[in-house]
Amino acid sequence: MDRDQKTAAVAELNRTFSEVGVVVVTRNLGLTVAQSTVLRNKMRDAGATYKVSKNKLAKIAMDGTDYSSLGDMLTGPVGLASSIDPVAAAKVVVDFAKTNDKFEIVGGAMGATTFDVDGVKALATLPSLDELRAKIVGLIVAPATKLATITQAPAAQLARVLSAYAEKEAA
Length: 171
Fold this sequence. Notes:
60% of the residues lie in helices and 17% in strands. The protein has a five-stranded antiparallel beta sheet. The N and C termini lie far apart (96 Å). It contains six helices and five strands. The chain is an alpha+beta fold.
């Protein structure tokens, strides 16, 4: 890499660190290209990204961001999983680590809050942003649905009574 490429890589990583909600640091202990491609595809499907970067460049990019505390975790061959949704990247990384022994979770951070491996696993168990939105919409819609059912009940009862009177007089 020449100086211009390094400068561009640092600028891109810095932009990423300023936009994302979570960064998970992983260690690659000999992943094949096929395994790495599978991981990247899973990340993309979840709305997350996975980048392998030189540790020195990542540390430079982290300076001045909330993720500067992750600098200590950047040793050896590492990859950075990130997403705007605080749960998406952690879920994919934890699921992938369960099926691949050459992939290790080192830690992560959500803003200025740093997590160890157990913290990342706990974060992965939380519902995603989309799931939380769906629950909130369900909670908001439920009272309206109940209200509509309650207001329809008297009208249906009145219709049944009138129908019964009409049948009685016709007979």
